[in-house]
Write a structure and sequence with these properties.
The complex is a heterodimer of chains A (about 270) and B (about 250). Chain A is an alpha+beta fold and about 270 residues long. In chain A, about 40% of the residues lie in helices and about 20% in strands. Chain A contains 9 helices and 10 strands. In chain A, α3 packs antiparallel against α5 (about 180-190), α7 packs across α8 (about 230-235) and α8 crosses α9 (about 245-265). Chain A starts with a strand and ends with a helix. The N and C termini of chain B lie far apart (about 45 Å). Chain B has helices at about 10-15, 25-35, 65-75, 75-80, 80-90, 105-115, 150-170, 185-195, 200-205, 210-225, 230-240, and strands at about 40-50, 55-65, 95, 120-130, 135-140. Chain B is globular and about 55 Å long. The longest helix of chain B has 21 residues, at about 150-170. In chain B, β4 (about 120-130) and β5 form a beta hairpin. Chain B has a 5-stranded antiparallel beta sheet with strand order 2-1-5-4-3, with helices on both faces. Classes of the chains: A alpha+beta (about 270), B alpha+beta (about 250). Chains A and B meet through α3, α4, β8 and α5 of A and α1, α7 and α9 of B.
């Protein structure tokens, strides 16, 4: 499952967001040598990290950030249109507007660049489509280094280049557009063999379990929240005998909330 | 800045490649775009299999120059060609002409001269990595010695789309079911998903059967094919035409 972090639930993901920014520094500044980046408190930030930004995080079973992507509305600013307009041919349509999100800063940690990571990367891509459709967004746009184009092209969405590739100081890049609607989302889910939503539902993510605990639950059995089996997992995690009982789940959640209130931390 | 006229067919290809319903349609579009850039022969080859497995490099699809390819193989060039070795060593695309003749190895020079005698004076090669360590090479060849240096990025992107979309369309082609296939329908389905990099759990979800049943199907398929690795089983079965199309999820 993918954690969708917005301004509403950001307080709950404080540790994961800090880690994500640090990993962005490692990936983009240290590994890829991007210059002119803003590094603050060990993390990489830019002007597109603000209250309108949405982060999609895939966590590993220890709750560490494995794959990340950000999306942001483009009705006020857009890196593609404002900084790299040469990547967009006029006939490629609008790249900014009220129903267009720009996706950027996609990375996977080193240990997540082979098979296990590819599943997580695909789930992050799928989550961006899922969130876009839910928000009435009809198009995702972004830039991608040409050496990563094959990965993005293999994902079962209808990615189309927006213009010719172009060089920038650290490599070659191309603009891409991805239409988003229910039909495209359904096709992507079919292509990945994923039956339903991939984003962790917000009620579960905001008040009950920490992101790490959720990840342990959700990845252990690849279960949908609310399943009876999830109850068993929760109970097992709590060290109780496995009995299928919604009451035990409720009791576990209540205890976690009490613990959290007592310690004043999200972990 | 206005687009160069010779780049316009390539731009057309970038916009429409994904809409190609068949491999033939894709290749027709690719050929038109390449022709405007002075390239007239091309092919996509698999040079390393899923899971990083060794395979005999072979052309998957393309519009190659058969007489040259036959000659190339007959001379044993495939095993010794520095261009093939370079595919494994570097993630970057390259042109034959990037290496001056005087700096070529003896076998490289032989291949270069023989290719020129067949009317092939330059080539552009793009390595493309798959999600499961597969490695493909797209080779585009020209009868002209020089090509527009500004076209390198464009050729790289065109070759990437041609390879990724072409491999997808190739999987959609249901080959004639060979009478000598030893695999059951379920075993073939499971191996098809193995070739897509799916785990037993993934396949069990897709086919709505238990993970244990998936495991059993794959173990039986490995036994029938006579290999010990699931990846190898998928490669062998695909090469023999026993897998058919990708099942719908």
């Amino acid at each position: 499952m993918i954690h969708m972090v917005t301004v509403e639930n950001r307080h709950f993901y404080r540790a994961e967001l800090a880690e994500m920014h640090q990993l962005r520094r490692v990936h983009f500044v240290e590994e890829r040598g991007w210059s002119q980046m803003t590094v603050r408190d060990g993390g990489e930030y830019d002007e597109s990290d603000d209250d309108r930004t949405i982060y999609f995080l895939a966590l590993d079973q220890e709750g560490r950030v494995a794959v990340s992507m950000r999306a942001r509305p483009t009705d006020d600013k857009c890196i593609l249109a404002d900084v790299f307009p040469q990547l967009v041919e006029p006939e490629s349509g609008d790249v900014c507007g009220s129903d267009i999100w720009e996706i950027s800063r996609i990375f996977a940690t080193k240990s997540n660049r082979l098979r296990q990571g590819i599943r997580r990367r695909n789930e992050v891509f799928l989550a961006s489509m899922e969130a876009a459709v839910a928000a009435g967004v009809s198009r995702l746009v972004g830039m991608i280094d040409t050496y990563l184009l094959s990965q993005a092209q293999r994902f079962p969405w209808a990615l189309v280049p927006l213009g010719l590739p172009s060089s920038y100081p650290e490599g070659e890049v191309i603009g891409v557009g991805i239409p988003t609607n229910m039909a495209h989302l359904a096709k992507a889910r079919r292509g990945l063999g994923i039956a339903g939503p991939i984003i962790v539902p917000s009620p579960l993510s905001q008040a009950t379990l920490s992101p790490q605990e959720m990840e342990q639950l959700l990845t252990a059995g690849r279960l949908a929240p609310g399943d009876l089996a999830l109850v068993k997992q929760v109970i097992a995690l709590a060290g109780k005998p496995v009995q299928a009982s919604e009451e035990l789940l409720a009791a576990f959640i209540e205890r976690k909330q009490a613990q959290r209130a007592g310690t004043g931390t999200v972990h | 800045m206005a687009m160069k006229p010779s780049f316009k067919p390539a731009w057309q290809f970038l916009q429409t490649a994904g809409a190609s319903k068949t491999l033939e349609e894709l290749q027709t579009r690719f050929a038109a775009a390449l022709y405007a850039l002075e390239f007239d022969r091309f092919s996509c080859a698999l040079v390393r299999g899923p899971g990083g497995s060794s395979v005999q490099p072979h052309v998957l699809f393309g519009q190659a120059y058969q007489a040259w390819d036959d000659y190339y193989v007959s001379q044993g060039y495939l095993e010794r060609d520095p261009c093939v070795r370079r595919l494994f060593l570097s993630p970057n695309c390259f042109a034959w002409s990037d290496t001056p003749v005087e700096r070529m190895s003896p076998v490289g020079r032989d291949i270069h001269e023989d290719a020129a005698e067949h009317g092939l004076r330059n080539g552009f090669v793009v390595p493309i990595h798959g999600d499961d360590q597969e490695l493909y090479g797209v080779r585009m060849m020209s009868s002209e010695l020089k090509f527009d240096p500004d076209a390198r990025n464009l050729l790289n992107v065109m070759a990437t789309l041609y390879c990724v979309i072409g491999v997808e369309r190739l999987k959609m082609v249901r080959p004639e079911v060979t009478r000598d296939s030893p695999l059951s329908r379920r075993e073939a389905e499971c191996l098809t998903w193995v070739s897509e990099g799916k785990s037993d759990w993934d396949i069990s979800e897709i086919l709505q059967i238990s993970q244990w049943t998936v495991h059993e199907h794959i173990e039986r398929a490995k036994s029938k094919i006579g290999v010990r690795s699931r990846t190898k089983a998928a490669v062998v079965a695909a090469g023999a035409g026993w897998l058919g199309s990708r099942p719908s999820a």
